[in-house]
Amino acid sequence: MTATNTIAAPAYSTGAGSTNDTSSALRFITCGSVDDGKSTLIGRLLVDSKAVLQDQLANVSKSGEADLALFTDGLSAEREQGITIDVAYRYFATPTRKFIIGDAPGHEQYTRNMVTAASSAHAAVVLVDATKLKWNVDGLVDLLPQTRRHSLLVNLLRVPGIIFAVNKLDALGDDATAAFAKISEALQAFAQQAGIAVTATIPMSALKGHNVVEATPGWCGYQGPSLLALLETLPVTAAETDVPFAFPVQWVEKFHNSADTTQGRRVFWGRVATGTVQVGDTVSIHPSGQTAVVAQVVNHARVPGSVAAGHGAGITLDREVDVSRGDWLLAQVTPAADPDDEFADTPKPRAFAEATREIKATVAWMDDEPLVAGRVYLALHGHRWIKAKVKRIVHSLDINTLQEHDATEIAPNAIGHIELALQEAITAVPYAQSRVLGSLILVDTATHKTSGALLLS
Amino acid sequence: MNAMTEPTHFDRLSNQHLDALEEETIFILREVAAAFERPALLFSGGKDSLVMLKCAEKAFGVGRIPYPLLMIDTGHNFHEVTDFRDFRAKELGAELIVRSVEDSMARGTVRLAHPGESRNVHQSVTLLEAIDEFRFDALIGGARRDEEKARAKERIFSHRDSFGQWQPKAQRPELWTLFNTRLQPGEHFRVFPISNWTELDVWQYIEREKIALPSLYYTHKRDVVERKGLLVPVTELTPPKEGETIESRDVRFRTVGDITCTCPVESLAATAADIVIETLAADVSERGATRMDDKTSEASMEKRKKDGYF
């Protein structure tokens, strides 16, 4: 038996923003308290899609019947105390797609866990427990605070697909159809008010399996796809290709395969944050401000081509310039056409704003100690470490409503708005425009704990 | 060569997602190279570490892996695997460091409760000694989150304190792809680039990339005895117990660890493509089918990880 050294060229998309790419694994999170049937839902997805094997099933079966909820409590401390400590990742696949579930516990340190799981998710399933809802005198439904909270959080993190799964409708018997209609109405009203684009609202019984893996046509008046069928067709994160090219340099490799010395002799590796890169593009290097032309682009596995946002790339420049890990390659925008010429055929490329040392951000605080103004933290932006001083706490947010309140500190698991001064300027883009350029983490200088997640305003 | 008897199921199985998994793994391998001063890649010669090595070749170019390979040898490894490990390391021109549990026993840092005890657990001691010796600040491992429940909770960049301990309640949140790799002196990271792969993904990738494996992974005749629902290989270290019948069976290993606690499964699968099909149809997990030592307690892996186990 001999090993081969050939590097097979994997099928790889050179197209920009292939938003219907269902070949990639879909990462989704489930939101809701344990009592809402979250564990049962995950168990149902795993069992019905045959991701759970006999020995694992035997571990959670009592008198022959599997307790679906038991799959999701992995740690002995969790089983002993009956609580869930941390995000767990679970996997299953159908013939057409692989899935990664970020299983964030609902009631314990919810903000921290949910922000962690949501930061990389393509979709969120927000469970609504139909049996817990209160009906007010007008026959309208009051949503539970946790439904609002979870929805607002995943929307704040810009999880692209948000699905409401109205669970336990089987427990309502004959009233289920009417109840689902009313609950849908309430969810729609809330989503509209909060500016949340909802992908779907599905009536469900995780316990009985209705509309989880198999669709139950007509049940509760719903004719749409099952949750799984929907997840199979959801796009992964829409590539941020309408923003100019930005590329954080992760690792610098000395160029060694070419005798051509007219090119730069190093390859800059990383993942394209926004836009697309191809040979001939002019880039500027942040922070040095030098410019160069892209001489070669290869994908993550060294196959030549153009590379779009979200994918790994290796970039060679046409000249020797000082670039190291942590620097950014940014689109060098050619001088814009006459700004008064509103009839210009081609849209003018948008440039990044000037790099800045003053930033405003929404912070999700994760440390056990509250965030106070005046402290200096280490901030990570792309692959660049910068010192960051908290200048001002603008206000904290009520996590249930996102209403603003005056505050002097941000408590553990709370969310607020802050202003920071940076030691070095960064190219800051609002998180709403770019999940990569618009996000930073704060790390405690003393403990090295990851203390906060910043979403730039 | 991959003549399939029932190709329909396999044909329907997409392997496009492997590109994304490979891309993520390469991103992590490069991050380790860039963010740490003295990383090492744990390399056993098993399928998961061979998959990592293939990704490392793509990440850094053939023959240019920028960190040494480290093997903690229990002295109870299958020679087919250690031979293959040496062959592969040489072929790659990689530096291979082997540290053995035997040496720790000679130093007195490992004491066995009885001579026949599995040395698997004691690897932690030898590993931590190697970390000390070489002042490694990051160890890359081929563990997957689908292997068992405690792993499902572990971060890709898993912080370990100065005793090598994993503290599940104090894990650093892992946000976006902003990996906090900051360390205090004496601490290190365990990094798991194939966290998000499953056993099936690994076999699909081996099949797609034509990755060579030790022969043990494919069907062969072996003397075994049946014990508690497992097939126990008959070796010097694992002799049959009284009353057990030795049978020659067609078997393969789904995982190749310490001889004293690794069992084969009955199989005629001769190629990676055959194994992909078998894995699809499997109804027992990799650990459930093959590991004697994990059966004792549901929490045994978690406890061992807390003690510094990989």
UniProtKB/TrEMBL annotation, chain B:
Pfam families: PAPS_reduct (PF01507). InterPro entries: PAPS_reduct_dom, Rossmann-like_a/b/a_fold, SO4_adenylTrfase_ssu, Sulfate_adenylyltrnsfr_sub2. Residues 39-263 form the Phosphoadenosine phosphosulphate reductase domain. Its EC number is 2.7.7.4. Coiled coil: none annotated. It comes from the Bacteria. Keywords: ATP-binding, Nucleotide-binding, Nucleotidyltransferase, Transferase. It is an enzyme of class 2 (transferase). The keyword Cytoplasm does not apply. Residues 288-310 are annotated as: Disordered. One of its GO terms (molecular function) is sulfate adenylyltransferase (ATP) activity. NCBIfam families: PRK05253.1, PRK12563.1. Belongs to the PAPS reductase family. CysD subfamily. This is Sulfate adenylyltransferase subunit 2.
